Each structure stands twice: as structure tokens, then as C-alpha cells.
Amino acid sequence: MIMSNCRDVLSWEECQQVSEFLQGFSNPVRLKVLCTLHDHEKSVGEIAALLNAKPSNISQQLKILMSRGYVSKRREERNVYYSIRSKEIYDLLEYLRLLAKEQT
Questions:
Q1: d(CA 47, CA 82)
Q2: I need a labelling partner for 76 at 20 to 30 A (CA). Which of 1, 6, 10, 91 fits?
Q3: What is the pLDDT along the chain (104 residues), one digit of tens a residue?
């Protein structure tokens, strides 16, 4: 659905919800974390190694991604694995990437 007039379509509550949801995309580390989870679930250590980052920083970003509903986790004994909740996250990310590219 293409909106011709957002003022008539989105309520203030919906605008707030969308704004909060999109905050998850507002950090480059979170975007990279999402990209690492594209093919399959991974642990904090695996993600940190792929991104050459500290596990504590990755854990912090995963917590934010989980709070926004982008990521889910699965515990297997002592290990925790993270995965993307919905393929539509990647569709949206790709769309945002294309929009950003048009702006440069």
C-alpha cells in the first residue's frame, strides 16, 4: 500500500510505534549484526568474531534488537543463539538501503 497522505492514514500512536521500531536501524553496528544473521542463527561470540567487535558490545546491540522485535533467541544448554524473527526485516533493510543510496 502506498500512502498518499500519511496524516490521514497513521494515527499518532501508529507514528510513535513506527518511529520506535525504526530506531533499531539507527545504529551501524546493529545493521551489521542483522546482516550477520541473514543466513542462519549465531551466538554472540560468532557475531563478535565476524565483526571484529567486543562480545559485550554485540550483546548490548542484540538486546536492543530484541526489544524492537527484530531478533529472537534460543538457548541450547549454556549457549544462546540469535536469529532474525522475520524475513521482512531484510526486505525493509534492503528498501532502506536503496533509499539511502538515492540520497547520496
A1: 9
A2: 91
A3: 445 555 568 888 988 988 888 888 889 999 999 999 998 999 999 999 999 999 999 999 999 999 999 999 999 999 999 999 998 999 998 998 898 888 87
For the chain, how many structural domains are there in total?
Answer: 1
19 within domain boundaries: no
Contacts of 83 (CB under 8 A, 6+ apart): 37, 40, 41, 42, 71, 72, 73, 74
Per-residue exposure over 65-91, b if at least 16 CB sit within 10 Å of its own CB, e if not = beebebbeeeeeeeeebbebeeeebee
Instruction: Please tell me the pTM assigned to this model.
Output: 0.83
In whole angstroms, what is the distance from residue 74 CA to residue 79 CA? 8
